[in-house]
Sequence to fold (358 residues):
Amino acid sequence: MTQEPLLLVENLRKYFPVGQSLGDLLLRRPPGLIKAVDDVSFTLLHGEILAIVGESGCGKTTIARTLIGLEEETGGKILFNGRQIGARERRLQAGLVPLESGAIGTREQQSLPRLSFKQFRQQAQMIFQDPYESLNPRATIFEIVAEPLVVHGLARGRAEKIQRVRNALEDAGLRPAEEYFLRYPHELSGGQRQRVVIAGAMVLEPKLLIADEPVSMLDVSIRAEILNLLHDLRNKRGVSIVFITHDLGTVAYFADRLAVMYLGRIVEIGRTAEVLKNPQHPYTRALLSVVPVPNPRLRRERVILQGEAPNPIHLPTGCRFHPRCPLAMDACRMTDPAYVQLSATHSTACLRVESTAL
Ligand SMILES: Nc1ncnc2c1ncn2[C@@H]1O[C@H](COP(=O)(O)OP(=O)(O)O)[C@@H](O)[C@H]1O
Ligand SMILES: [Mg+2]
Fold:
């Protein structure tokens, strides 16, 4: 069965200009670039959960913000249900590019069917890390969850609005929903607030949820509940989820596939079981070696990485992981590794893997 992916991301790049100092300006030094996301490709199938894992600063939030349209990509292609919702479409929406202008985008991009940005945002929702910041403190829970319906003009009449808000709250595990309608965010616990955020995202019945570290600000004791809730929503509503986390320990039972990121690049991607049982990239192995394992016989030797994660302004030459890699060889300083296919679904970008697989 061939299935068109819900989301197809190809060679996505997002660079931020670095602020120039007066000295830079006087010497006419060109502005530097922070390559926060640097050539990222992946697909997400309908109803699939893909986890994106990596240390702080590797570009996870930038991917999320770019996918959802809060940032404009520097380059690459994002297709949602086979339709483009890229930078040009957004500029068209904002009225910045005359429709007849053919100057932007390749011919192939121009011929792709387009989805209006508003239609896209109805079908793709983001859940942020901090449930304390993402809720308006002066709005009631009812108003918060109803707002997306109002913005998108989707509820016909008060009865329908109430029904949809009630369903969304109950789906998010806040039952009976009416008890929450007139309450304010400060009256709820962190876990309940994150459930309200999830209800507000699900009220539009989206096809895609992008969850950026949705449990990292929550008490350890309630993290599993929120993960189970997201898992249930996938099973019951068929929503696809991009689940972003710095904690490899949370993904094992949760995600169908796993992408490991290092400095703006995916270094290994595959089915979760494949990557966890047979990790090939030295960075994936290092991350896994520090995840606590309940059974001591399964414990791996800890790999302690040398040095700090380098800065995406000054990317290392060759393989960007080589300065910290325990297996680095001379070639790694020169050659940026291409992906090596390990199975139909598992690949990694490491010269060592290429040379041992041959
Ligand atoms: N708006 C921005 N302007 C400049 N640099 C940014 C901006 N947003 C993120 N960055 C930089 O991009 C890199 C990736 O950041 P981010 O995507 O937040 O990583 P993560 O979510 O994995 O911690 C970091 O070096 C960060 O400082
Ligand atoms: Mg982040």
